[in-house]
Design goal:
- A hairpin with a 3-residue loop joins strand 7 and strand 8.
- The chain contains 16 helices and 15 strands.
- Strands 2-1-5-4-3 form a five-stranded antiparallel β-sheet, with helices on both faces.
Length: 594
């Protein structure tokens, strides 16, 4: 008589190797090999003919062949990576008996030890008298189901890991969770328990109006709100599922909202309006934040997640919560840097008689040191500045703030002499931050003669009614030359070439004086505008000149329209939002009215 126990084996090495990166080797190794009684001589003789074709067997001393992975059915809204296997019936048993056994196995309730409806003893029917073939087939089905679940979780967590922003991760969490619990709609509420924010609500299959209707439900009646507030489920203490160290339920299920009389009437009213009849809510908990929020999925019909679905969503959200916590920390860091940068730049541009200002500013993902300023000076004068600090990140932003604040102080004291302003700024930079350099450009203009606050207008010659031109004095330290745009000319201002601040032992450069005709616009910008074009500097300068010259005549009276036209024409993506670029951009326009 053949020893079936030693001759029949399930070949799972290939599957274990394939899933090794998911850490399932230990889980698969815990599966017991089916115990087949020795008193099965008749079945031993028929064994080669009755085994399932996709179950690979080999005899001792022979090389194993590759196992054909069985197929598993679609369960709980999951699209399995493997199709479903056909049930194997004992050929020695009448067909009716096999069908009855199969139906019984399908209708049997699932348990945590048997998430796919297969009894722990390995038999399809749960009977200890099941045939050895059925035992082997049941174990293989259980293996295939476990591997299918792990493959599904692997795919979903891989898609989640590809998200780079907090908003993308929240949307992916909703989508994946809906597929795991068999729901179609849902929402996630981000409300970190440390109170540092951000707080937001994102829906899946729900519009802003739908979320607004849900938020009209009293907070004590909302399942996700009870999770966020740490409130237990009323009258369901025995059914609560708590985690070690948790101060609230880990999940709240409302399987029949229309039929449950103890629920809040407003909840049933909103559920009827939106067309959902059941909900399933879980918290999102991860260190070091703790509770980051809660997610709830909505069913169109009364339903409750199965034990298998609860198990899968528990594994997935444990990974998702950790990923969200990392993205939350990164989001907060970026927000802090952005807030610091915005506070260090002008909150608004000043209103100066006879001058209209507009600016466009964008910072790269690392946070750079490009800056701008426009300040009202005594006697109605105006100072314009633009510059850049070497480096990136919070240190560059802080250095930019110190440099800008220092320039404002020097401009108030000696703004009529731009060379003196930049000389003092260079000395301060060299003494306080010797390892850093910067570029800067400062321009000073007085009101035109006869204007309020300006010098008195000289007598006009008879027959001449044209207003006097406006005089502007500027100096630059390694910065890009300004661009002058008017009805009769579009040209760069010829500034003296000089080194950036902090590069030489003593900076010195002469100033340049130009006259601006009424209706002309002065453009100040940073080199990031040129670098973002992706072209060589000479071609980028030519592109900027062409963009300024092509401003429509009807738009030249509006500095906002001028800067928007130049940005659209200059940059390949047509705007300042370019996550792929690390260059800061500053573009400021000052139009001198007629």
């Amino acid at each position: 008589m053949l020893d079936i126990t030693s001759l029949v084996r399930v070949h799972v090495e290939a599957l274990i190797a394939e899933q090794h990166d998911m850490g399932v080797c230990d889980a698969i190794g815990e599966i017991e090999r089916p115990k087949i009684p020795h008193s099965v001589t008749q079945q031993n003789a028929a064994l080669p003919n009755i085994l399932r074709p996709d179950l690979v067997l080999w005899r001792a001393g022979h090389e194993p062949s590759a196992m054909t992975v069985p197929h598993v059915p679609k369960v709980a809204g999951i699209e399995p990576a493997l199709p479903a296997p056909a049930h194997t019936a004992d050929p020695l048993t009448p067909k009716a008996a096999a069908d009855t056994s199969s139906d019984t196995a399908h209708d049997s309730p699932e348990s945590p030890d048997s998430p796919h409806g297969v009894p722990p003893d390995g038999s399809r029917s749960g009977s200890p008298d099941a045939s050895p073939v059925d035992r082997i087939a049941a174990v293989q089905d259980q293996l295939a189901g476990w591997i299918s679940d792990l493959s599904t979780l692997h795919d979903l967590t891989e898609q989640l890991a590809r998200t780079r922003t907090l908003n993308e991760a929240l949307h992916e969490l909703l989508r994946a969770g809906a597929s795991l619990v068999g729901a179609r709609r849902g929402l996630v509420v981000l409300a970190p328990s440390d109170g540092l924010g951000p707080e937001t609500t994102i829906g899946l299959g729900l519009g802003h109006a739908d979320i607004g209707h849900i938020e009209t439900i009293p907070r004590r009646a909302l399942s996700y709100a009870r999770i966020l507030d740490g409130l237990p489920e009323p009258g369901a203490a025995d059914d609560s599922r708590t985690e070690k160290g948790a101060d609230s339920r880990t999940e709240i299920s409302e399987p029949d909202i229309p039929g449950e009389k103890d629920l809040d009437p407003r909840l049933r009213e909103v559920a009827a309006r939106l067309g959902y009849a059941a909900s399933y809510a879980v918290p999102l908990i991860a260190d070091p934040v703790g509770r980051t929020g809660a997610a709830v999925w909505l069913y169109d019909e009364p339903a409750v997640p199965t034990d298998r679905q609860r198990h899968l969503i528990g594994l997935y959200r444990a990974h998702a919560a950790e990923h969200l916590a990392r993205l939350l920390e990164l989001h907060r860091s970026k927000q802090d840097t952005a807030t610091l940068r915005e506070e260090l730049l002008p909150s608004r541009l000043p209103r100066v008689p006879g001058v209209r200002l507009a600016v466009r500013h964008s910072t790269g993902p690392r946070g750079g040191g490009d800056w701008y300023d426009a300040l009202s000076l005594p006697d109605g004068a105006l100072g314009l500045a633009v510059g850049s600090v070497t480096g990136s990140g919070p240190s560059a932003v802080a250095a930019m703030g110190r440099l800008r604040a220092s320039l404002r102080a020097y401009a108030v004291m000696e703004g009529e002499d731009p060379v003196a302003v930049l000389s003092d700024l260079e000395l301060l930079l060299r003494l306080t931050e010797p390892a850093r350099s910067a570029t800067a450009l400062f321009a000073f203009t007085e009101p035109p003669p006869g204007a309020p606050g300006g010098p008195p207008a000289p007598p006009m010659p008879p027959g001449l009614d044209d207003p006097f031109p406006r005089k502007l004095v500027l100096a630059g330290a390694g910065h890009c030359p300004p661009l002058l745009v008017g009805e009769l000319r579009t040209e760069f201002v010829e500034t003296t070439l000089s080194a950036p601040l902090g590069m030489l032992a003593c900076w010195e450069a002469p100033s340049v004086e130009i006259e601006l005709a009424p209706g002309e616009t002065l453009l100040l910008y940073s080199d990031g505008l040129l670098h973002r074009t992706g072209e060589a500097m000479d071609r980028a300068f030519a592109r900027l000149h062409a963009a300024a010259a092509s401003v429509p005549r009807t738009s030249r009276h509006d500095p906002e329209a001028i800067v928007d036209h130049i940005v659209r024409t200059m940059l390949p993506q047509g705007g300042l939002d370019d996550p792929a670029s690390e260059e800061d951009v500053v573009l400021m326009a000052a139009r001198f009215e007629e």
